[in-house]
Amino acid sequence: TLNEDRVIEKVVENASMEIPDPMLESQCRNMLEDYARRLQSQGISFDQYLQFTGSTIEQLQEQMRPQAELRLRTRLVLEAVVAAEKIEPSEELVEAEIKKMSENYKMDAEQIKTIMGEVGMAQMKADMAVQEAVDFLVAEAKLV
Questions:
Q1: Are 135 and 127 in contact (CB under 8 A)?
Q2: Which of 54, 61, 83, 85 is at a distance of 20 to 30 A from 15, taking alpha carbons?
């Protein structure tokens, strides 16, 4: 929501941190690959896009750099809030998320857990904790 965005923007703005270059470059690459996939889904190859726009991969990465840095800073700040506040999604929330996924994919919950595996489940819980951190920050901001 707009309110969430504003609160997070303020918190990230006030956080001072150095983003290591390799981390930033990796984020840029991920965003570029994501962009290429979206183009592909619209029937445009990445090479065609580069030809149409007269851009190079390096130029695109340079354009994406500020957005990549903001995404990383935001994620790192939210992960710091998760750690500081010891935020962990409850088993009920995790089970509710699995149930929602099982309904969406028309599979049973155990199948979803098997497909996701340990790494996928850990990532889902981390993402849920980050969302709880957002909720926490928004709630704290209303108190100020």
A1: no
A2: 61
Q: What is the DSSP letter of 83?
A: H
For 51-71, how does the pLDDT look when each residue is reduced to its tens digit (9 = 90+)?
999 999 999 999 999 999 999
pLDDT value for 30:
95
* 71 contacts: CB under 8 Å, gap ≥ 6: 27, 31
- On whether the CB atoms of residues 98 and 109 are closer than 8 A, the answer is yes
What single-letter amino acid sits at 60? L
The single-letter code of the amino acid at 109 is A
**Sign, Cα dihedral of 126, 128, 134, 135:** negative
Residue 117 to residue 112: CA distance in whole angstroms: 8
